[in-house]
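Model: You mentioned two targets. I'll fold them one after the other.
Researcher: Yes, keep them separate.
Model: Target one:
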Amino acid sequence: MRVALVCSAHGFGHLTRQLALAEGLLARGHEPVVFSAAPDEVLDDYLPGVARAPWRADVGLVQADSLTEDPPATALAVASCCTEARVDALSDQLRAFDRVVVDIAPAALEAARRADVPALAVGNFDWPWIYRHYPALRETAARLSAWQAGHRALQLRPGPDLTGFAHVVEGGLLGRSRPAVRVADRAVLVSFGGLGLADIDARLPRLDGVTWVLAAPMPRLERPDVRFAEGVSYPALVAGADAVLTKPGYGIHAETALAGTPVVYLDRGAFPEAPYLERAMAARGDEKLTSSVADALSAVWTRPRPPRRPVDGTLDRLVAALG
């Protein structure tokens, strides 16, 4: 099959788990093409040379950084990005495919419907469910709900139940995985994805023996206790770290769970997905940052390293759902 994988443009987590699917499709002899607004280096970090088409399918939530949402700006951005003309333009491109996987932009599902190509939504939440939590986005939620209605979906976990789909297949965890690469002793990988964190330098204390590891798209920090890693696949850095400092997000949760790497995570405020992720993170022994970074790291390092999450068949169920 020739399969279009259309990824939400919100951060990189939607893309990274679809790269895991692309890898699985390639191994089974299929032909995936990744539709994404992310920089090429994010794709090439994991699957060099994978076929891609530059496309911004949605906006997710407009955020100043990984921890700060702007619902009114989101409503304006969705109105500008998810127009009838853009849906039709994407539909024209999707007619060249046998199947479409959408993670999890309603406009792309509507484009597949107009192209008359079978589509499968994949996600641990859906955007109308997120938008309904914000008064400024409830009208947007109603419009996008109509675009995802009638489609099939595969539910990733952890996350809230997908809403408004014709049929939902239960899945589990989907994420990238690579053998561990260590770049420093007592390495803590700092991971805030495509949205970053404005005050990252101030948030990283000088701790004896600890090396903070950053990699693209995080910015470089000119500090003796910071190592900027290049030429190493990101999930290999995750697997090789002694801990990851991050915020609750599906992509980093999946990759740390698959690698067995402990996590210290910041509060994500009112983001509706966060409680589902935090419950799963707490269950594996990850530590929420409530006092100092040093105390949180000490807490996870006094516990046994979490076991690696075994592959649970989600990828096989996803490929089977494509038919």
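Model: Target two:
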Amino acid sequence: MIAMLAGQVDQVAADSVVLDVNGVGYLVFGSSRTLARLPGRGEPLRLLIETHVREDHIHLYGFADEAERDWFRMLTTVQGVGARLALAVLGALAPEALARAIMAQDKAALARADGVGPKLAQRIVNELKDKVGGIVLGPAASAPAPSDVAASDAISALVNLGYQRSDAFGAVSAAARRLGPAARLDALIKAGLRELGR
């Protein structure tokens, strides 16, 4: 199994890159987010690789960082999400935003990815919401899930004001962390609005 490749960029296509490793060109598929960050032709490149071996092919999927690779692995465990669809989700949402969307159960954010409809977005949320904490995601992983009534009402208030559910969730989570468990609804809304204004 190939876990990492380091070489020079040879060619870049809409969904892949050919990486020249000591004269051997490896075709590596990637998310639009990873491919947009690639250096120019002839420049050095190191990618983390997920190798998929099937009866009729071997595909390599490349990632700029561990968080994106780990999310790819997790997404492909969801029924109905294959490698290409997982790359589409990762192209639409950065790992931190994906974690926030799943914790906030923001199906609309997930449905922005090509090929993800409302039913599949709901399935992704349902199957991954309990697994989100087990992956290295930076600050989003440590965000407490607002579960008390005041935090839930504050999130609803921010959504009613026109904010995306995952953004409102992140803002109220940060506010709840700062204000503590005894924070009142009005304080959570005001602090959440300040977070969103940053």
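Researcher: Noted. Anything on target two?
Model: The chain has three domains: 4-63, 66-141, 149-196.
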